[in-house]
Structures are given as structure tokens and as C-alpha cells.
Amino acid sequence: MKISSAEFVISNSDVTKCPKDKLPEYAFIGRSNVGKSSLINMLTGRKNLAKTSGRPGKTQLINHFIINKTWFLVDLPGYGYARVSKSAKKVFQKFITAYFSKRTQLVSAFVLVDSRHEPQKIDLEFMQWLGENQIPFSIVFTKADKLSKNKLPVQIENYTKEMLKYWSAMPNYFITSSSSGLGKEDVLKYIAEINTQLKDF
Ligand code: GDP
Questions:
Q1: CB contact burial 114-127 (16+ within 10 A = b; e otherwise)
Q2: Of 144, 153, 157, 174, which is the most buried if we count CB atoms within 10 A?
Q3: 17 in helix, strand or coil?
Q4: Looking at ligand 1, which residue's alpha carbon is closest to its atom 15?
Q5: Is the dihedral of CA 151, 41, 11, 130 positive or negative?
Q6: Which residue's C-alpha comes closest to atom 2 of ligand 1?
Q7: What confidence tier does 76 reach under pLDDT thresholds 50, 70, 90?
Q8: What values do phi and psi take at 87, rounded to 5?
Q9: CA-based angle 121:122:125, to the nearest 5?
Q10: How far is residue 75 from each of residues 16, 149, 169, measured CA to CA in Å?
Q11: Which residues line ligand 1 (CB under 6 A)?
Q12: What is the mean pLDDT of residues 191-197?
């Protein structure tokens, strides 16, 4: 998919105030600092569309972007940042839960995990929750350029092993690097294919 336009639409913490347009929507979520903003900028080919966070936990809002005037890309707040207070975490959980439960336009989520890290409890629990709520998702392994050619497949294999403890199959996944552009075409092709299917439906 060629990105001909990518525009910011609105930020808010209230799902009822998200755009009303019935366009297919794809949400990006993950732990703070996982590389979400960089990935969104890489996918859209825009340097500063999503704000890369010098200070993790800063963007606690649902950010809507409209892509090619045909679908929404949603940048959700990063979770699991230790310095966010317990009460802030609760508020976060509430509006993220509301977003995923009420946003009927949502087609699929992309859960970002840092390819260098061992599976983290918070990510596994979050994917479990998505599964229980029948929300389709893919895993996006980020920062693949930071791993050696040999280490990368080992990390993916370990992650798969962990997932298979809870899932009957490894969910769809992408290996990406915002520095090299790795995975860009795969993610965009995946979205384009779903959008085409939805149009034909
Ligand atoms: P966010 O908090 O999830 O939005 O993460 P950012 O996109 O702000 O990235 C966090 C840090 O990781 C920044 O210092 C980025 O430059 C770095 N980073 C993000 N993606 C990549 C990547 O693919 N490769 C490398 N080497 N660094 C990355």
C-alpha cells in the first residue's frame, strides 16, 4: 500500500468522542518506549506524525490519524510505565477497556513488543484479555535491527514457545525495524488486504 496521505484527526481519552466515520480502524499499542511512535512514523513515511516520547508515559491519549482518507490508524497510550501512579493506571485501564469494547470500527490491534526482551507479563496478560474479548490482534516485534541475525530467530522462537502455553497457535506476527524499514511492506499489505476484503463484503 502506498501512503498518499496521513493526517492527524483528534486526541482524546473518551471513546465516545472518537471520530464517528465508519472507516476500518487499526490500533497500535504496547509498553512505553517499545518503539510505537517510531513504527507509526516509519509505516506512514512521516517523520513526526506520532510524537516519539522522550518522556515515556507522556501521551496518555487515544490519537486518531486518517490514512489515505480510507482508514484510521490509532495510536493508543503506552502501558506499563512504572512512574505512572496507581490511580493513573486505573484511569488508563478504564478508557483503554472502553476503547476496545466500544469501538465497533476497530478491525484489528497491533500489540508491539520489543524483540530484544523476554516475554513480559503485562504484554501476555494484555493479549490474553484481547483474546477473551474476541479482539483480533497481531504481534509486532520492534527494534529487530538491535539483534544479530542469529539472535533474532531465537527470540521469536522463545516468544512463540511462551505464547503456545496459552494459545493453540502463535498469533499472526510481524518483525519490524523503524531504523531500517523492515516489515513496513508486510504490515501495510496486511492492512490493505483486510480493507479490500471489507469493501467487498
Ligand atoms: P514509544 O514510547 O513506544 O512511542 O517509543 P519511541 O518510538 O519513542 O521509541 C523509543 C526509543 O527507541 C527511541 O529512542 C527510538 O529512537 C528507539 N527506537 C524505536 N524504534 C527503533 C528501531 O526500530 N530501532 C532502533 N535501533 N531504535 C528504535
A1: bbeeebbeebbebb
A2: 144
A3: helix
A4: 35
A5: negative
A6: 33
A7: very high
A8: -70, -35
A9: 80
A10: 16, 30, 27
A11: 32-38, 52-53, 56, 78, 142-143, 145-146, 177-179
A12: 96
Q: Is 191 helix (H, G, I), strand (E, B) or coil?
A: helix
The residue among 178, 190, 197, 17 whose CA lies nearest residue 112 is: 178
pTM reported for the whole predicted model = 0.94
CB atoms within 10 A of CB 24: 17
What is the greatest pairwise CA distance in the chain? 46
Which amino acid is located at 142 in the chain?
A: T
Calculate mean pLDDT across residues 101-127.
Answer: 96
Only one residue has cell 539483534, namely 147
For residue 32, the CA-to-ligand 1 centroid distance in Å is 10
Pairwise CA distance, residues 157 & 147, whole Å: 14
Radius of gyration of the chain (CA): 16
CB of 16 closer than 8 Å to CB of 65? no
The answer to whether the beta carbons of residues 70 and 25 sit under 8 Å apart is no
The set of residues, in sequence order, having a beta carbon less than 8 Å from that of 166 and lying 6+ positions away, is 124, 128
Give yes or no for a contact between 140 and 123, defined as CB atoms under 8 angstroms apart. no
Q: CA 193 → CA 24, 44, 75, 109, distances in Å?
A: 12, 17, 21, 15
Amino acid at 28: F
